[in-house]
Amino acid sequence: MSKALTGIRVLDLSRVLAGPFCTMILADLGAEVIKLEPTGSGDDSRSFGPFIKGESTYFLSLNRGKKSLTLNLRHQEGKSILKQLVKHVDVLVENYRPGTMKKLELDYPVLAEENPRLIYSAISGFGQDGPYRGKRAYDFIVQGMGGMMKLNAHPDGPPTRIPIGLGDITAGLFAAVGILAAVREREISGRGQMIDVAMLDCQVAILENPIIRFFAGDTPKPLGNTHPTISPTGGFPTKDGYIIIAVGNDNHWKTFCQAVEREEWIIDPRFITNAKRSENMPKLRELLEELFGGHNTAHWMEVLEKEGIPCGPVNSIEQVVNDPNVAFREMIVNLRHPVAGDVKMSGLPIKLSRTPGRASVPPPILGQHSAEVLESLLGFTKDKIDDLKQKGVL
């Protein structure tokens, strides 16, 4: 069965997280992704632990479904090969610091001369233009500069990083959206274009509620496990863990109070409306923590779910990967790597009805597909490939 992006070929010059996350999504959806890696060392993340039989789990988690081609872009023959490859691909993705590809004489204007239909996606920390253009960026820096760390804290607590590469991942997601939009537009115009995605821009874009609240005169502050305007919503300790509840309106509040046998709260003037509950949330939190602390999480889940109150446990990673709904939705997949063996990782969350994507091909060994790609796309002979290897081009 063909996938949604079958027939789209992507040349992936990116490394570590933002770009590889983008191209992994494209690969899962059916694109042929050729991962171009530096000769000898490969993607930087190949050296990031922990390791399984010498293979980086960091690299494995982001590069399934791709072909690995090693190429030295500082060598003139390496540059020539890239220009030849560009003629045979639809999309190029890179996440170098702005200016790097121009120094290599391989930036968008140069490569668009080789293939006017090329869609060139550049992911960077702060964009291809602007005052921060040349500044180095990492996820931690962008989470801080984008306001995320300041919000992700308890009142009077220190700014705290969200413990995933959110700055990189959101950039990868927005880049994938931009690529698909450009592919669609190319069907009309017949022309490619450049896509400029900045990590900081993406952090600002996902601050949907805090930014509009600021301009409305309500500057967001760290709230910990409490929602700023819908109460009670958040996490509360139980006898054996935590439970999350989301009481979305006044009718839900009445149902909730009846379910937990606290009917007097329904008419309490401090809690009678959502606005009042939000205003008096510190006191309401005290009462709810006392309530929920009397039983374990499973008890409260049963009580609240019976009445249709949105709720859920606060799971550990172990509980997440063993969750029956996660398993049913195929969100944990097992891929057999030629060196690492069976490797479990998260799956594809996009479920298409006719052309479903799937995480099914293991990540490549460094340079695993160099000969295959150069023979099939450029017609290189075995002797030529051997010569390029001896020169340090491959």
Write the layout of secondary structure elements.
Layout: E1 9-12, H1 18-28, E2 32-37, E3 51-52, E4 55-56, H2 57-60, E5 66-70, H3 76-86, E6 91-94, H4 100-103, H5 108-114, E7 119-124, H6 139-145, H7 148-151, H8 166-189, E8 194-198, H9 199-205, H10 208-215, E9 233-237, E10 242-246, H11 250-259, H12 264-267, H13 274-279, H14 281-292, H15 297-306, E11 311-313, H16 317-321, H17 324-328, E12 332-337, E13 341-346, H18 370-378, H19 382-391
Parallel strand pairs: 1-2, 1-6, 2-5, 6-7, 7-8
Antiparallel strand pairs: 3-4, 9-10, 10-11, 12-13
Helix pairs in contact: 1-8, 8-9
Structural notes for this entry:
It is a single chain. The protein is of the alpha/beta class. It has two domains: 266 residues, Crotonobetainyl-coa:carnitine coa-transferase, domain 1 (Rossmann fold); 77 residues, 2-Layer Sandwich (formyl-coa transferase, domain 3). It is built from 19 helices and 13 strands. A hairpin with a 4-residue loop joins strand 9 and strand 10. Helix 1 crosses helix 8 and helix 8 crosses helix 9. It is elongated and about 85 Å long. The chain starts with 8 loop residues before the first strand and ends with a helix. The model has no long low-confidence stretch (mean pLDDT 96).
